[in-house]
Hints:
alpha+beta
Amino acid sequence: MAHLRDDLRYALQSFWKSPAFTLAAVATLALGIGANTAIFSVVNAVLLKPLAYPDADRMVEFGTRSSVIANFLSNIPEFHAYQRQTSVFKEVAAYDNAGPGFNLTGDRPEQLRGIHVTEGYFRLYGAPIALGRTFTPQEDQPHGGKVAVLSYGLWQRRFGGNPAIVGQSISLGNEPYTVVGIIGQGFIADPAADLWLPFQFEPASQDMNNFFQIAGLLQPGVSFEQANAQLKLAAFQFHRDFPSTDPHVEFHIEPLRDSIVGDVRKSLLILLGAVSLVLLIACANVANLLLVRATGRRREFAIRAALGASRGRIIRQLLTESLLLAIAGSILGLALGISGVRALLAFSPAGLPRIGDGSVIGLDWRVLAFTLLAAFITGTLFGLVPAFTAARTDLMSTLKESGSRSGSGFRQGKTRSLLIITEVSLALVLLIGSALLIRTLAALRGVDPGFDPRNVLTLEMSMTGPRLHTAAGVAQLSKEGRDRLNLLPGVELSATSVWLPNQVDDGLPFQIIGRPVDKSKAGARFTSISPGFLQTFKIPLLRGRDITENDIGGKPGVVLINEALAKQNWPNEDPLGQHIHIGGDIGPTFAGETVRTIIGIVGDTHNNGLGHPADAMMIVPTAQVPDGYQAAYSDTSALVWVVRAHADPHSLIPAVTEQLRIASRGYPVAHVRTMDEVMGRSTPHESFNMLLLSIFGLVALVLAAIGIYGVMAYSVAQRTQEMGIRIALGAGRGAIQKLVVWHGMKLAILGVAVGLAAAFALTRLMASLLFGVHAWDPAAFLLGPILLSAVALIAVWLPAQRASKVNPIETLRTE
């Protein structure tokens, strides 16, 4: 401990005497460790941090799967089948996705995020109760009453934390709901919600419409494998009870955490691997700085050795110094990483699960442990090479050297050269990776979505309330609102739908009349629109006619299909005039659905993301949606208003919202955005990945350039006498420049060659993140080396210029 105290004191003194070196080393490490801390804090929040629920490791998500697809949306009969598996599940609860929310009407109308849940939901998620209670089993039965549970945030914000609200009524969609309880502060709902209402499922329901999710809790001691084995038996019995279902579809579960995280795990791990390369580059840079510093201290180490210091003592001293640098860099890096990633997520929301639902990016023991471990590993990593190099100093030869000859020339810096080659190769891997993601984002942005988003304003209105439980009620509201909007100055056209054209997320089965059922081609996306929707978005009508105001309830049913559906089911014939029946196997929600005639074919829209082909889609008039379907979806779907403006649509927002409030008798609107803004947020993962890897590539490029410059500048300084002699013997300044530039570029070229080979192998891991570009894209593999070589050339040119200006007279005089 006495030796350690002495080592620490001596290290601090030496750093104080070399402020430029100390600042450069700490800043370099702060960049590397900070970038790693930033990404690890995201990985921690998304992948590692336990779910904030009791027994979270036993919580599961239910779904169905076949050889073709896995689905995590369920229906009422499936929910009841899962509930009966009491031997493997302690609790089973259903919840929907808090779509548009509920209209809090009366004074100060407001649209709230609301979720329908079964009564076991609050037990399953361990929700604390601040006041009152949650739903009883009786209240979750049909006709169980209109009751609601409020979140703590809504209770405080809207009702001032008044405890008297429990037992009172609030108006939702102009209907009274009794508040029975308040959920305690800190409960993290998934999805987030302002209030909860009971589902009130029919016990004997035959409704096969998949519109909610189901989570459960395994019984103690039951494994996931045992539960899935039991569900296979349950699925067999389910298909016997409901013979219209596909017998090849199985029930299954997966851990709730995996279901929430989804497919972002791989992209986050790739980013974590990429940012570790930045840390390696920073380590190589600092190792080079320490090597240069150790070379200048050779006489000091020789004198210490002559006075009796062992080789291990000198190594320990240098490792102490490197660890101190690493600790200082990690402290600064920790602050940079946490603040930097918060700023980055604010600037470029990644759409990551568990971010923004109450789980925030911040410090916890995992982030602190990671940063300390990074500090220890990096301190040891970049400190070992200089320490062992210094410890191998030849005592006699070093003491005989003059101060001016105590350096090393180009050929004596093999270790420094190897570090530079490593830096350049790692930087090139990051540059090529960022180029691939930039080209991916450009390819996505270049995809024709199938509609024109310019100058279109979008608004969402919740359809809660009995008035909007029928297709006729929704159609009437749509017509009244459109009539008002179309009279506003600056409005070109308006329309309504339940989905924006790039977000259609509902799918239904259908049957072609006169054909046997082909299960592989018997489903498509489903949406309803008002007249004028196609014109508002300039979606082309390829053949047939559009929906008109005459396509109302009681008239013959009609449907539009997109080109993808036409090619899928009618590849060699004309679908116009053909008849289909939609939702035949679903049950009561489509009771009364009639056979529909295909009246038109519209152009494809990328309704499942720009990176995926357009899905087959069916489009029906708003006024001809079955009432059972409208009633089932009225509380979970929004009525989307779209307004095409002659100029900037933002200027229309006050007038449009006022006219819609009048037309709806006081309903508020929410999510007021232009369609350009909606499209800009349609690629959050890709934008986030591209931005991060581009930042990593830029940092790596700068660090590599600094490393090359530092090594060459030091080498030139060490060979000042040699340069003077060469010039005195007749060497031209151009020859001196060429000598220095060629040596530096040899290192860069070797690094580029190694980096190209590494990038060719590693970028294949990014294939799942790419769109419209191959992992071996020639442009990325050409531009990356060119950019890096150009930067390297600038980095070696500056020392070469200095070398060519050496004064031979002064140099020889000092000798």
